[in-house]
Structure formats: structure tokens, C-alpha cells
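Worked example

This section walks through a single chain of length 413. The input is the sequence exactly as stored; nothing has been trimmed or padded.
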Amino acid sequence: MRRPLFVIAVAVTVAAGLGFAAGHAFMPTAPAGHRPAPATVAADPSLPATITMSEQELANLQLQVGRAEMGPLARIVSAPGAVGYDQLRIARITPPARGRIETIDVAVGDRVTAGQRLATLDNFELNAARSKVVSAEAGLNQAQARAATADAAVARAATLIRAGGMAQSELDSRRATAASAAAELRTRQAELQQYQEDEARLLPVSGASADARDQTPAASRGAIAAPFAGVVDSISVAPGEIVDPSARTFTVADLATVWVQADVAESDLGAVKVGDAAQVRVSAYPGRVFTGRVTYISDQIDPATGTAKVRCAIPNADEALRINMFATTSIISPQDREGILVPSGALQNVNGQSVIFVQEDRGNFTWRVVQTGLNMDGRTQIISGLAAGTPIVTDGSYWLKAALMQSAIPDEG
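Given that input, the structure is written out below as C-alpha cells.
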């Protein structure tokens, strides 16, 4: 009769333990700076204070023993959210000049590299810019010739003066002419540089070496290019359309970093700060945690939901996070103080009380009622009932609970 009762007791205890673990995992955390009142519930006197295990039982149970440790406390705020573009790395591209779209070279969803052509543009301004460059080059050549002639005239005049064959006034006149020619040369050089920059702005990114003297129809072909590597999010034009610099043609987004907008409850908002670490989980990758930082906290509360938007910047080098994915965000907010921490799995529920099993010596364990505080990524704060450095059962404590509860069952023979 004793063995069936033990089996039933173990089953009931394990079920209770699982229920406690589930409830403990979703236990609301205390606000920052809040310290609950000390526990007033005493240990159940009907249960033995010590559990003794034989060497064989210890070998079978394989209990893991560790120590309660002091560590920095942090409050974890969990909130639902959604993945979105990093608005600082999204380009809404307009054409460099007025022209006609000749071809579209990409599709929505395509990945592009920096400088890649998105569309071919029959650029109405490119030929005019090239004509200005040609004219400026001719003017520069003439200015260079005049400056060289004026310098030579000054040199000859200086020689004649030394020989007594020319008046000083003539030399001064030639020097003035040379100075004027040099000034005109500098003007022509600046003018040519300006026109060349205008032309370069209108040229395709990868085709800026085209001959400026080429006046064939093909010479007016320019390009709309990607400013950085990313994904084509939208295309707003079609072949044959005439566009100008005010028209948005493409949107390219860099997914190397994404923003996760978390909806944080008003009651938790005071615990969240810019710079706090953030962990993001999505259902597409059950075992993966994406880490980042809080970069912005909205100054408005949504009256319909009682939440505020908290933006988390999350590195996404492999582009695993997709736009509009639903995400669960955990924001880890340091509390600037330390506390006693134990693995959450070490806690058991005994008659409605949180209990830790302490190893007194080899094979002997006592149980202590404790009061818990913050839950932090698999660890739980102990507010009272346990000192730092105490040896505790960190893994397998549910077997000790089963033995404890079984010992309270009367032996009916």
C-alpha cells in the first residue's frame, strides 16, 4: 500500500511543481525600488525539517548543488511589438534631373548593392550640362593661351629694358595684361570645375567616365542608382514616365539594423530607460534571441491601450528579422543595486509557500520558506529567508519536494 501512495504523491507533487513553475514564470515583478514586506508565513510544522537521502538515492536523483549569490538586480519588462524599418537607413530616391524612364532594372524585394542601377533615365539635362563643359573647356584653352602669350611678352620686355630698348611704362603695361590674363584663366578653371560637377551629378554612378563631347542620343542616358546596399521596398514609376527631382521613384531600405517598436504598459514605463538592453524573440526562430538597445521612448500614451511606444534598435546582419514580424520584447533595466539571486528552477511551492532546499551535509537537506522578488532571465531575487553563500539544490529540487510531501502521508501498512 505504501508504494502506490508514494507514486500518487510523486505525481501530485510534480504536477503541483509544474504549476508553480508556470505561475512563477509569469509572476509580475515588483516596481523599481519597491521592497515587499518580509514573509510572515512560517514553515509547516507537520512536515519534517530535514530530508535524508541515501547514497543510492543521491546517485539516482543526480541533484545539482550551488550557492545563493549576490548579484546586480535588474527588472525585466516584457511587451509585444513589431519589426519595422530603421527610418535612419531608408532612402526615398528621386531622379537627379528631369527625364524619361527608359527601363526599370529591379523589382520589389530585390537586394541591391551600393551604386547599383535601379532604372535607366533619358536625362533631359545631361546634354545641356555636357555642352557647358565643352564650352568651358574651350574657354579655358583660350585663357591658357592668352596667359602664356602675356607671360612671354613680359619676359621679352624685361630683356629689352635691360638692353635699353624699351621704356619702363611698356613693361608695366605688359605686366598688367599678364595679370589680367592670369585672372581670366583662374575664372575659366573655376567655371569648368563647376560644370564638370554638374555633369557628374547627372551621370550614372558607374558610368561617369563618358566622353563629354559625345552628343549622340545614347549620351543622354543617365541612371537612378541605389545609395547603399539594401532591399527595394517600393517602385513608384513605370517605363515611359517623365519624372523630375520632386518625384519619388524608388524606396531602398537597409535591413542590417531594424527597429522593433514595443508597446510598453504605462505601469512599466518608469522602469525603462534609453540605453537599456533589449532582447527580441520571434516565432519564426523559437530558440534565437536578438539583442539590441532601447533608443527612444515615446512621450505619449495611447489612450486606447494604455501603452507607449518604445523603440529598440536591433542588429540584423543576416536579415533574419523581416518587416512586420510580430515580436516579444524583453527590456532589461538595471536597478543600480545588488540582491541575493538563485536559479528560478531551485524554487518549489510547498503548501502555497516558496521553498528552497538547503544542503546541510552529504545526504541531508533542509527546506526554508523564502520571499521572492524580481525575476531576471532564469534567476530570481530572494528578499528574505536565505543568506548569500548558502549551499542550495539548484537542479532536481522537485524530487526533494516529492520526498518531503510523501513523508507527510500516513503509513497505512
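What to look for: Residues 1-42, 205-220 have pLDDT under 50 and may be disordered.
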